[in-house]
Amino acid sequence: MLVAGVAVPLVSFLLLALFGARLGKPASGWVATAAIATSCVLATIVLYQWHFAGVRPEPHVFTWANLGTIPLKVGVNLDSLTVIMFFMVTFIATWIHVFSIGYMAGHSDEVDGESKYHRFFAYLGLFCFSMLGLVIASSLLFLFIFWELVGLCSYLLIGYYFDKKSASNAAMKAFITNRVGDFGFIIGLGMVVLFLGDLTLDGAAKALRVQYAENGTLFAHSFLGLSLATWMGMLLFCGAIGKSAQFPLHVWLPDAMEGPTPVSALIHAATMVAAGVYLVARIFVLLTPEAQTFIAIIGCITLALAALIAIVQTDIKRVLAYSTISQLGYMILGMGLGAWIGALFHLLTHAFFKALMFLGSGQVIEGCHHEQDMRKMGGLRHKMPVTCWTFFIGVLAIAGAGIPMTQIGLGGFFSKDEILAVGWHRAYGQGEVDAAHEMEHAAAAMPGPWAQAQGAGHGAVTASDTPAGHGHEAAAGEHGEGHKVTPAWPAHRPGHWLLFLVPVVIAYVTPFYMMRAWWLTFMGKPRDEHVYHHAHESKLMYVPLIVLAVGTLFSSYFLFRPMVAEAVSEIGLQQALVASYDGGHHAEAGLAIDHDTHKYLSMIVGGAFVVGFLVAIAIYWNGLGLAERLARTFQPVHTLLVRKFYFDELYGAAFVGGVLVIKRLLYAFDKYIVDGIVNLSAAVTERLSRFAGNVLDARGVDGAVNGVGKLALELGGVVRTPQDGRIRNYILFALCGAGVVLLVVVRAWAS
Amino acid sequence: MLFLQEWILTLLIVLPLVGAVAVAIAGAGGRPLVPRSGENHDEPRGPRLGQMALAFSLATGVLTILAVALFFTATSETGQNLARAGGFALVQDLTWVADSETARRQIDFRYHLGVDGLSIWLVALTAFITPLSIWASFSGIRHRQREYYALMLLLEASVIGVFCARDLLLFYIFFEFTLIPLFFIIGIWGGPQKWAAAGKFFLYTFAGSMLTFAGVLYLAWQAARQGGVFTFDIDTLYRLQLTEREQFWLFLAFTAGFAIKVPLFPFHTWLPLAHTEAPTAGSVLLAGLLLKLGTYGFLRFNLPMLPAATQELAPLVAVLAIIGIIYGALVAWVQDDFKRLVAYSSVSHLGFCMLGMFALNQAGLTGSVLYMINHGLSTGALFLVIGMIYERYHTRQFDKLGGLARRMPWMAFFLVFFVLSSIALPGLNGFISEFLVLLGTFTSRNPLDGWPAGPLGAPYGVIAAVGIILSAVYMLAMVQRLLFGQLKEPEHTPDTSGGLRPDLTRREITILTPIALACLILGVYPKPVIDSIQPAAQQQVLAWVYAGDTDAAFAGAIAPRDAGAPARSAGPGAKEGGEDKDRLSRSTVGFSQSGFATCFSRWGEDQSPGFFPFSDFSRIPDSAVPEVTHR
Fold this sequence. Notes:
The complex is a heterodimer. Chain A is mainly α. Chain A has helices spanning 2-23, 25-53, 80-105, 117-136, 140-158, 165-196, 201-214, 217-220, 228-243, 252-255, 261-270, 275-283, 289-312, 316-337, 340-367, 385-399, 411-428, 433-445, 449-455, 496-522, 529-534, 539-571, 573-580, 585-591, 595-605, 608-620, 625-633, 635-642, 647-696, 703-719, 727-750; strands spanning 61-67, 70-75, 110-111, 114-115, 222-223, 226-227. Chain A has 31 helices and six strands. Chain A has a two-stranded antiparallel ribbon with strand order 1-2. A two-stranded antiparallel sheet of chain A has the order 3-4. In chain A, helix 2 runs parallel beside helix 4, helix 12 (275-283) runs parallel beside helix 14 (316-337) and helix 30 (703-719) packs across helix 31 (727-750). The longest helix of chain A is centred in the C-terminal third of the chain and has 50 residues, at 647-696. Chain A is globular. Chain B is mainly alpha-helical. Among the domains of chain B are: 309-531, no CATH class; 540-624, no CATH class. Chain B has helices at 2-28, 48-73, 82-85, 119-140, 145-164, 168-177, 179-189, 194-227, 234-238, 244-261, 270-277, 280-305, 307-334, 338-358, 362-393, 404-407, 409-422, 429-443, 458-483, 506-524, 527-545, 552-558, 564-569, 595-603, and strands spanning 89-98, 107-115, 230-231. Chains A and B meet through strand 1, helix 5, helix 6, helix 29 and helix 30 of A and helix 7, helix 8, helix 13, helix 15 and helix 16 of B.
């Protein structure tokens, strides 16, 4: 059924690609929407069956190609994570399609009298197909194939307004930056084939366990101080660095905002960019602790960098873009720390609220006649109340609003909390023997699945439908090994506290910049009469907003987290980790969130959103005045942030400039040296042969060649070659020249 | 049916030849064949000649479809499917030149044709690309149509001949003969520097292949020494026993011809000029087919005939290939002329092709062959699209054009499509071959399943993989500069004379669509092609490359699992392997190297040594002239 769900958007793509022009403006949009809605219905049915009825269908596997003894298989990877991701993608995509019908209708996009409208929806269809394919792919190869395809759709959609230089530049930048990441990914894939001999996720995981048990090549050998297994994980992760816009390849995502806003919402906020996190989740079983640290560090740098840049952005979409990068950083950090559930949970909640906010911004941009500068907005709450308040829900969610110490809060509150909890555990868990004790008790006292797991030691956690109302599942892996807590992480690793501290600080920054954006847009007084005057809201476009807002409010905790948690056992994650790495600390770290951690965390970050909000409101209460004064005061910092830490300039100089010099040099080399040698030898030989010809009347010498020359001459006579007389000389020279060159080469090689 | 099986390859070669003659005669229209000076060559003769040539090449295409069908259904005498077993089918083997009909011949040149899984696809590619490029010439070629179309058909015949030849002399004749039509195609219908380009192309490649010919002659001489017969029969030459030193020199001699053709860095400088100056169809055939002659030559001769040298020199070739990949990509990037850009991209792509081949394992070889086909399709198509742009704007300079997507949406679609195929986007054809090449390179040194270790390894793969970034960079940069941004075109353009219109005409769309479909099909479902390349790569190339390797594990890998032991014991020569140290004894592994015999032992269906006379062919006995009997 999921396969059908994947195929429907493809059908829509084909339909629109072939007949879209004839369907015309609103019709092609509705075709695409109907297709994705069908997928969504299918996904909902599957979700229902899976989650509530407990149906577990048998997966079918086909062989795509045989590679010697390695079959490359196409299959569906069916588990809770797939099901919930599938549902999320189809659901959000459906509503974004609806939104797009309204949004794209207002655009003049004629090409030679032919509208591009249908193309937009055709691309969207292709994207949905690829994204869904990515979600269900059961082998790394197919993951990679769909991975590239979503990249292609991203390229096509960013460059949708291809007349705009900036748009086509941004599209290219996105594609190429992703390619850099994929470079690592494909090498990682090569390593998987080389060392594990299996590209399916399950098979690779199994093979890795065997390698670990036998101390195989991957673990026995190291390169630059890191084991090959670590390198493999890091290289595979490179793909995610590109796609999820992580440092240092984050530069493409803000530029990608050149695409139409629904595209930003769907691809560059909710789904495609999250694919990187999804990838890490899928390859998590292949990651060594060192690789995880690497991932965590990348995530940590990214989330801080992006959040700081977001503070000074004035374009509403760019604020959202940087906040997306920052939130993706949170997810990646979570993955790296081992907060597998937290990261995926955050992915799902983030998809909802970020799509919501992007659509809201789309509504604003559309309403204000393509004005994206927040400095010219303000006071829009009167003109677009629905947008204003749904956006506010999004802001609350991203800020992690909730009431500390209780179970009331929005998605972001829990998911971020969970990541931070694990981070705290990583950083400080070791020393806190008391906390560990408490954890043990908590685990023993816990009802539900985790307690069973604890009882069973390494046993698989039984799936449970418990809508885990209290998210404080205790340690699954804290199996009763007495009171000694297995070190979760080498105890004194400097910098690990940073992996906790930085996200905590940024947890204060996030609400600030989000509130700033919201306040500048909707609150205060209108700063540009013209913009304000024209602002309006469109009904077709605010229905999706409301739906997504409701989704943000309610679905997250009751659906997402249990589904993700279920997936852990289905993938055999904790078991795999327990079995393959020492002491099973990974499993524990992935699942354990104890009361204690939460208590501390609530004190530290529980109120962060209030603080952030208040500061933002205080600064922007009266428009931009105070902010500008502050910017002047902190001039250097401000400039640094506005210039986005000079990444674009740096890359421009280093890569583009450097490579430009190199390639020009190479071209000169090609033209003057390589070709020069050929021409020189030609010239020299020609002289020689002239000499020989004049002096010796070279009939005897090149008699053999002459025959060919004559043939050429005769043929040449037919078409009148202007070079008649010289051809045999050429042949002679070429022979001699090639001989000499060959001799030199051979000598050099042989010696 | 049997008649067809034997004669179809000959028909494939003869039909375009007949077409060439027919076009030449029809075009003359009663006037002398050789035009005298002062005659008006530019008088339009309508597209009839072109249509005639198109009809002939299409007929060849239909025949090729039949040939492919026959190939896949061909069975050996024991009912074994030859395509699946990696053997040769559709064989025709006639004595061509021989000194006498007595039992003991001194000279034996054969007209020996046959295709296996490696060559059938290249034949198909030829028959597929040629009609399309002939058709694409309708609007571009306005003078001397008679000669033009005759030469095109001549070229098709000779390229098909190269891929079918099973006799080295025959191969060489066809190989050299391809130069002549192309020389004139570039020289007469080319761009401003056409004669320089044609001359350089001809002489450079010719000079190289002269050395190859020296190698060919040496091989034949060795055959005469070892087997008593002066023959060029490839099956016989494969069994020659050559010292490492001989192999080394022969390798260089063959490389001289083939590397220039490929072109392998640093022998590539003829290529940009020739590609750029050639007329559209010339570039298409040059890139799509003629470059493959070089790689095919490596595949057919260097690897299986000179295994010791191949294994020894593979790192050198691979390094050159990798330099080519990166160097070609960087130089392509800097071009101001988009046809030149695509030309340099060929240098980069063919680097991948060579790299995969010299990984000397199944993945690499299969990827390499697939790469030949895919490069032929996508780069050929790119040249077609570029030719279509050129016909309208008469310029190939980036800075004169821009934003063409607005003017030519269809062209933009196809250009982007083929660019994506060229940069190996998954779902299109380029991906699977590039992936296999990289995979093969990666796993070369650490083979799976007991294969002997190949010469390359992960570092080669890693460096080559940089090429996938660079290819995206320069190709997308081209797309962006040509298609996107504000519309920019020279004055008085687009030129719509000769039935053109600003966007692609129906004819042009019809030309490009089949290629696009082929790219898509190969990208989505490459299994049939891969499944037929793989056994051939194993039986016809790898088995020879590692023949001297008496590694038991390898014998197990290459022989069928169920019949491994009989296959090994089939050859009594297995024990003699170690005796002859300086000679590289290569048939001593115990399984026969002939495609037929191997497939029998491989599939375990016929283990009787009596069936095939050479199934225990440990060395050529002086008395027994290797009469080629597999038909």
